[in-house]
Amino acid sequence: MGIMARLLIYGCLLTPSLAAGADGAILFDESHNQFWTACIDASLIDFAEELRNEGYTVDTLTTGPITYDILNDYDVFVFPNGFVGKYSFDSGVKLLSDDEIAAIRGFVEDGGGLFLLECGWSWVDYAQLPIDVAPINQIGDVFGLKLNDDIIYDPTDSDPDCGEGCINFHRPYITNHPVTDGVNIVSCCEGLSSSLNLTNPDAICLISGDQDSYTGYHGRYYEAGSCPPFLAALEYERGKVILAGQVGFLTNHDHDNDGIKNLYEFDNKKLGLNIISWLSSSSKSQGCVSISFFDNLD
User: How far apart are CA 157 and CA 62, in angstroms?
Assistant: First the structure.
């Protein structure tokens, strides 16, 4: 009588973009009245084009709602804070629904990369609502990451033409990490950066102010000597999250009128590309499969 042997092979299939070693697909949200967008002639269009030059597919979501099925076609979801119309400050506020928050959380848990960015003081000023209900914090609360409604000031590492809030973040206050590889100075010359509150113990502060940086305006959350955090990273389940306290460092504006767009000041572009590269390397999978082989052994 023969003996039946069974060999079971179990594994997970990577998404085609990652399995093939190709660059991933990036989706920018523009469905929540964002001022900073990646559409044609908008403020993030140069950054989107630089990503395409790196081999990424870049799309924009202009109408909601955000759903898991939409996000699942992408490796990275970029969400600038929503508080105004695309080209004006009078188009109102559009908060995230519970279903949209659940979709984003599921996307990250299943291996997606999430890039959240905006300055919090502007939400309070222009939306005229508490910082806790800002869409960035609606999402960030899920992951233990919060954007504050303050401004990071620095009396010595800032642009003298626009005041102490136009900071140049620099080493050694830039943590060694794949996101900061080759990044020595980041110029936040537009938008006035906000600080972060990292309640998740697994979150890593990647960039902070230095020893004489402090925060103020709506709230003084960090005194001089406390090195207020500006950029943080988190690995969450199979996915990854980045939160930045400003978006202006990636825009095509020339805030200081020196003939160089913000994106191309110092190491700004390098940081932006590193962020997307790190986020797109998450272990996103299409699902797990098992294959069984049967044979008779005499």
Answer: 37
